[in-house]
């Protein structure tokens, strides 16, 4: 069989167009056969492929542009072209395609919409025996689950414009419909057609495509010819998809069968509640393993030890076989009830108990499970990461520390160990097999939740943290991808005046880009096993990360990495006379010490600083970094000690410029230094010059550079799966972030109390972009009820200007007013409106917690916050709360979601 492929695409000198026929997949990546195309004018391209294809089969393919042997660009990779061989007598195919760029409505091709909201199943085209055939293909992503696509045209064979005689299309690819016509029944060389949607199989309820009639010119055809036309996407005058949902961490879920913490069984129950209330999305926080110390400090879900491994605490023990030892079973049941009755999570007791239970169950059931076909399939699919993770976990527990630099003979993963660790007969395998078993259990349970959510048309949305723990398995296994001399964090913002220091190592992007960001691609593709949408935590990290030196505690001495540091000459070019020691060393003068330490200033002069000249001092060597100060004050918890420690931190960060981490001859203006003493010491004229330099640096200088950095990474990741891509784009956001997110069709995060427009105090919900997620609060923020009472003047302004109500704002927030706030968010244009479970409950005064402060999930200013918030109501009781559930369904109906 001969297949001629034709496509029009304007190329430039040195570029070649290539047809890539997909032959299989390996580790999530497409394996292809490539065919270079030919052209006479640089626009009309064609290639002929000989293929032995049987009727009833199909091929997928895409086009790309090469310069020499290097790929410069390829089509949007979420959906490929598909060619069905549905004609039994076919000898020659002529295919006329369009180049596929990422469309404005790319979100409609995401599995969140196609597999969850719509839920249509693909069908194979029926075989025909036409002597001559014309196949028409068209993408129509707006169709709902009860919609069918039809074609009608001028000719009798096309229905003669009678909708009752229209021809039904078959959805053979994601959002693409196909129909093969008998070419011998088409008169002349032109046909005129139009598409329409038939809703609920009714000839009265149809929607015509929003365009003129389509006219197609057919070529001369011989016996055995098939002509395939890929037509421009069909557009219909239909309302946009708008979905409501709930955000709740898995650990926060509570059911009657929980073991003191939410688990994957509870997550399935939460899907039931979301579905019952006519919501369509359920968002959770990260669920990866975070076990470093086996203490409550591991409760931080954004500090994973593995980007693949799931946290053992989420195992649903009720879905596993019971322990045969009745005394043990009774002991655990008693403990389960005790832990489940607690108002908050006791992280250590819960995890100790669950680990003990799983080890007993492994002794009882493990051998049988590890011999099963299901486990062997799982092991084959995950072996690349599972084996190192299991050995890491075994070594962590064996040596009593996650600091692998202290592990004898195992300071780094050795690929040579893989063979023994993968052989069930080997001692090494037996030592780590428990960890294989637990991950198999967790993966199986979470996949079941995912399938359950899809069956109920619920979008399960996950969360991808920007960082990993510096003592985690990923760093141990592939250290080349990380910079261990830096700490990732965030510059000062509304959450933390000193910035946030997450402690994660920063990424060695140069190394990651060498292999096409495969580490990230693998991570995203693994997420797609369990989710249909995801949130990119701190998407700004793909443009630049706030990198803090390892000797710092706070984030003020950080700098954006990568970024274009300033030379001495550039700084002087602004009119600021360069004084390196004055600008880059802590500015410590008598008046500064008196202002910070007051009655303790002399104590600081004598113990922590040493005199240099005049009224100037410098830090003593034993206290000249924040980490040294932190160590000196370890265990000292009096108010005076904490005040002295924090004052010394402030002294050390009191600099005007920070030296570049890579190039000692380049400098960065210190973030928020306008609030510090070194800035106060400048002449007014120098302050004005510095402010101009500062604003140019932070808001203009790096924009194009950061755009280019993000475009090296994010397109590969966005195209790696069909999950719906959402991003947390809060904080100090450069203009380039919006450029990239618009280009890649990534949904932004919109919070009314944190508007992106610096000119307004509160965002106008009606101005939310459609491609966005609207919410009231995040896990890092005060809930709606907390926020309402934090700052009464701000609340009063919101009450009058946003809610358009007169008089004093009521405190605490009444349920009827919370309902008004929720309703306004639901009616925003945002595609997704996802509210925290606490904010949903705020509308019902009988249901919500009495103490709003008990609703808080995280306090970002506290790096050692205990993540232990738990719903005070079981999911079973929530399901029975008819009045509350009817309020939600009523709000969604009124909002058109």
Automatic annotation (TrEMBL):
InterPro entries, per the entry: Carb-bd-like_fold (IPR013784), CBM20 (IPR002044), GH (IPR017853), Glyco_hydro_77 (IPR003385), Ig-like_fold (IPR013783)
Enzyme Commission identifier(s): 2.4.1.25
Residue stretches making up the CBM20 domain: 126-233
Catalytic activity: Transfers a segment of a (1->4)-alpha-D-glucan to a new position in an acceptor, which may be glucose or a (1->4)-alpha-D-glucan
Gene Ontology cellular component terms for the protein in this record: cytoplasm
Keywords: Carbohydrate metabolism, Cytoplasm, Glycosyltransferase, Transferase
Location in the cell: Cytoplasm
Enzyme's top EC category: transferase
Gene3D superfamilies, alphabetized: Glycosidases, Immunoglobulins
GO biological process: carbohydrate metabolic process
Secretion signal, residue range per the UniProt entry: none
Predominant localisation class: cytoplasm
GO molecular function: 4-alpha-glucanotransferase activity; starch binding
SMART domains named among the record's database cross-references: CBM_2
Listed PANTHER family: 4-ALPHA-GLUCANOTRANSFERASE (PTHR32518:SF3), PTHR32518
Family per record: Belongs to the disproportionating enzyme family.
Protein name according to UniProt: 4-alpha-glucanotransferase
Organism annotation: Prevotella fusca JCM 17724
């Amino acid at each position: 069989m001969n297949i001629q492929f034709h496509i029009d695409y304007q190329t430039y000198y040195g570029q070649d167009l290539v047809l890539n026929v997909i032959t299989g997949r390996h580790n999530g990546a497409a394996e292809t056969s490539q065919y270079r195309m030919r052209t006479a004018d640089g626009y009309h391209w064609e290639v002929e492929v000989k293929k032995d294809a049987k009727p009833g089969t199909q091929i997928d393919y895409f086009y790309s542009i090469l310069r020499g042997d290097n790929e410069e660009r390829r089509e949007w990779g979420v959906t490929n072209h598909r060619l069905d061989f549905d004609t039994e007598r076919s000898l020659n195919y002529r295919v006329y395609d369009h180049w596929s760029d990422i469309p404005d409505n790319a979100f409609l091709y995401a599995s969140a919409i196609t597999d969850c909201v719509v839920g249509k199943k693909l069908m194979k085209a029926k075989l025909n025996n036409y002597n001559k055939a014309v196949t028409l293909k068209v993408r129509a992503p707006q169709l709902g689950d009860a919609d069918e696509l039809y074609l009608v045209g001028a000719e009798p064979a096309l229905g003669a414009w009678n909708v009752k005689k229209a021809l039904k299309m078959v959805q053979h690819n994601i959002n693409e419909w196909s129909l093969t016509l008998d070419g011998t029944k088409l008169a002349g060389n032109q046909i005129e057609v139009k598409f329409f949607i038939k809703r609920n199989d009714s000839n009265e309820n149809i929607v015509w495509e929003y365009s003129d009639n389509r006219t197609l010119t057919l070529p001369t055809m011989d016996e055995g010819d098939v002509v395939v036309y890929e037509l421009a996407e069909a557009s219909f005058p239909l309302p946009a998809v708008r979905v409501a949902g709930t955000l709740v961490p898995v650990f926060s879920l509570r059911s009657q069968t929980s073991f003191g913490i939410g688990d994957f069984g509870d997550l399935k129950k939460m899907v039931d509640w979301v579905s019952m209330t006519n919501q369509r999305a359920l968002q959770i926080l990260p669920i990866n393993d975070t076990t470093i110390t086996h203490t409550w400090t591991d409760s931080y879900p954004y500090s994973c030890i593995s980007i693949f491994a799931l946290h053992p605490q989420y195992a649903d023990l009720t879905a596993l076989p019971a322990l045969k030892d009745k005394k043990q079973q009774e002991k655990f049941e008693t403990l389960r009830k005790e832990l489940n009755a607690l108002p908050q999570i006791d992280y250590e007791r819960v995890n100790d108990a669950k680990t003990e239970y799983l080890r007993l169950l492994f002794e009882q059931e493990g051998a049988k499970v590890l011999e099963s076909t299901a486990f062997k399939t799982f092991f084959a699919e995950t072996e690349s990461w599972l084996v190192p993770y299991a050995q890491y976990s075994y070594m962590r527990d064996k040596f009593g520390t996650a600091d692998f630099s202290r592990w004898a003979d195992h300071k780094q993963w050795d690929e040579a160990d893989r063979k023994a660790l993968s052989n069930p007969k080997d001692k090494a395998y037996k030592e780590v097999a428990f960890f294989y078993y637990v991950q198999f259990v967790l993966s199986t349970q979470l996949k079941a939740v995912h399938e359950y959510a899809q069956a109920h048309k619920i979008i399960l949305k996950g969360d991808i943290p920007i960082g990993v723990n510096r003592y985690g398995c990923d760093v141990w296994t592939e250290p080349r991808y990380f910079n261990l001399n830096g700490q990732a964090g965030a510059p000062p913002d509304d959450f933390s005046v000193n910035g946030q220091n997450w402690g994660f190592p920063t990424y060695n992007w140069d190394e990651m880009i060498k292999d096409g960001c495969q580490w990230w691609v693998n991570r995203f593709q693994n997420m797609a096993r369990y989710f249909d949408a995801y949130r990119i935590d701190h998407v700004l990290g793909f443009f630049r990360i706030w990198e803090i030196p390892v000797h710092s505690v706070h984030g003020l001495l950080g700098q954006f990495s990568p970024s274009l540091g300033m030379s001495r000459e550039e700084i002087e070019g602004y009119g600021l006379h360069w004084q390196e020691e004055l600008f880059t060393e802590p500015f410590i003068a008598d008046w500064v010490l008196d202002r910070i330490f007051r009655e303790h200033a002399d104590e600081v002069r004598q113990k922590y600083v040493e005199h240099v000249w005049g009224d100037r001092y410098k830090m003593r060597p034993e206290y000249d970094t924040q980490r040294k100060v932190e160590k000196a004050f370890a265990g000292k918890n009096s108010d005076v000690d904490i005040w002295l420690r924090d004052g010394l931190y402030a002294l050390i960060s009191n600099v005007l410029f920070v030296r570049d981490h890579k190039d000692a001859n380049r400098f960065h203006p210190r973030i928020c230094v306008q609030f510090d003493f070194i800035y106060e010491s400048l002449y007014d004229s120098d302050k004005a010059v510095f402010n101009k330099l500062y604003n140019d640096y932070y808001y203009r200088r790096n924009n194009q550079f950061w755009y280019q950095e993000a475009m090296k990474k994010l397109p590969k990741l966005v195209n790696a799966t069909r999950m719906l891509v959402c991003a947390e784009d809060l904080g100090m956001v450069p203009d380039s972030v919006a450029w990239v997110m618009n280009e890649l069709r990534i949904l932004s995060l919109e919070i009314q109390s944190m508007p992106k427009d610096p000119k307004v105090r509160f965002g106008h919900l009606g101005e939310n972009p459609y491609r966005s997620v609207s919410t009231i609060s995040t896990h890092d923020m005060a809930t709606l009820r907390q926020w309402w009472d934090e700052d009464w003047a701000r609340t009063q302004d919101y009450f009058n200007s946003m809610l358009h109500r007169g008089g004093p704002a009521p405190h605490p927030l009444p349920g009827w007013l919370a309902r008004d706030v929720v309703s306004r968010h639901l009616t925003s244009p945002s595609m997704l409106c996802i509210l925290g479970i606490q904010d949903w409950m705020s509308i019902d005064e009988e249901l919500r917690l009495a103490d709003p402060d008990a609703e808080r999930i995280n306090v970002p200013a506290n790096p050692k916050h205990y993540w232990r918030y738990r719903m005070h109501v079981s999911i079973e009781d929530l399901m029975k709360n008819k009045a509350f559930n009817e309020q939600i369904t009523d709000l969604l109906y009124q909002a058109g979601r």
